Each structure stands twice: as C-alpha cells, then as structure tokens.
Amino acid sequence: MSSDLLDRIRVSGDVPRHVAVIMDGNGRWARARGLPRHRGHREGMKAVREAIEGAVEAGVEILTLFAFSTENWQRPAQEVSALMSLLQLYARKEREELRRKGVAVHVLGELDRVDPRTRRAVDTIVEGTSGGTALRLNLMISYGGREEILRSARELARRVTEGRLAPEDIDERVFAETLFTAGLPDPDLLVRTSGEHRLSNFLLWQLAYTELHISPVLWPDFTREDLFEAILDYQRRERRFGRVSAH
Ligand code: IPE
Ligand code: IPE
Ligand code: MG
After folding, report:
1. pTM for the full model?
2. Which of 74, 88, 102, 184 holds its CA 20 to 30 A away from the CA of 160?
3. CATH classification of 4-235, choosing from 3.40.190.80, 1.10.940.10, 3.40.1180.10, 3.40.190.10?
C-alpha cells in the first residue's frame, strides 16, 4: 500500500520541498485507552520515526516538527518533565539511526528555557547528525511564532540603534533572515493531526502561503501512509499566491 501511494506521488507532480507538522493528539490517544498522558507522548515517538522515514522515501528535503511550544511550558510540571525526559530518550535512542539514514537534525526554539540535561542531549543529536544530506529535520522545541517575530523585531531595532541598518532597508528578506528558520524556504505543506483547525502559534511568518492539510488521525497513530496521503492532497492543490489561475 505504501509503495502504491509513493508511485502515485511520483506521477502526480512536485513533492513539497518543506513539510511542517503540528504533532497533536497524544493526550487524547492515551485517554482513549485509559492511560496517563505521558504514554501518549511516548507512543508518539514511533510516529516521529514514521514521518521521518516517509519524508525521506517521498523525497521531501526539509521536515519541521512542532514538538513543544512556548505555551506548553504552562502544562503541569509533571507533564513538562515527562516531555523533557522523552526528548533525552529520543536523542539517545535515535541519534545513531538518524545519522545512518543521513538525517541532519537541527533544534530551533528558545533553548535557554530548557533544562541543562535536555539541552545537552539535544546538542548531542545535533552534533552527531550534522552533515546528513538525505533530510533536514527541524525539531521545534520551546518554540512560539509570536515570540520568534518579537526576537527578530528586537534584533533589527538593535541594529538600527547601533547604526548598522536603515529602517527602510528592512524588507521581507532581511526580516526572514533573523528568524530561527533563516536560510530555509517556507513550508509548502503544513499537516496538523487530531483534527484541530488552528495554528497554535506555529511558524506565523513562514506559513503565509503554505497549503494546510488537517488529518483526523491522533499523532501516535500517524504512519508514513498518512504523510503520503497529505502529500497527494497537496499535489491536488493549485497554489496561486494571490495571482490568477495559470490555466
Ligand atoms: C501533542 O499532543 C504533544 C504536545 C503538544 C507536546 P497533546 O499533548 O497536545 O495531546 P492532546 O491534544 O491533549 O490530545
Ligand atoms: C500545539 O499543540 C503544540 C505542539 C504540537 C507541540 P497544542 O496541543 O499545545 O495546541 P492547542 O493547545 O491545542 O492549541
Ligand atoms: Mg494538543
């Protein structure tokens, strides 16, 4: 089934270069089974593996996963600490396999808010996989879109105050180069799981013209086939960027 979908992707047009995913529904997955929420997060690790392998198979260049938002710091301390431990486990367990697959991991977000242990684990996965050429994986941790835009505004204000930048020279390119995603193309496709129709403060600047695909699947149940279906859905879209239709 998975190779059928891949064949269809190959004949259906361009594969999205950059796919972003809001991985949602771990808590509901656990609750439906009478399990504590952290079991849902743990199970979600398998879906992360599926998404990465699927992205490589489909020929996606950049996969950006929303793993922990700035707002998620407001969850109960026990859940936050379970999520941080899971990140450490992920870094330890998956580093070698990711390196072998040629996946270069980057971690983007306000990492000074992350505890030193998790920070170290995250650094080792970034260092251990650098130079991979099959896929660039961005793990968004302690990330919030508004905060990212504010950081850029502060940085540009600083440059102006120091006389290094003229206000009229601030254009989209200059602004984008101060974001965490500097140097990367905007996502072509955004997938959100668990049926929620909102952005939850994810990549507010970068998603301006991104195609949205809402999947009803809860994140722990997400498979590469679900990713392939999302890509096929994307390939049926006509991207107009505000212009008129080409045909
Ligand atoms: C997504 O699952 C994981 C994180 C936000 C860290 P949730 O924990 O939000 O699961 P639901 O939305 O409560 O089901
Ligand atoms: C968004 O999911 C954040 C991540 C997937 C990391 P949330 O579950 O935190 O978002 P809301 O609360 O439903 O908007
Ligand atoms: Mg949620």
Report:
1. 0.98
2. 184
3. 3.40.1180.10
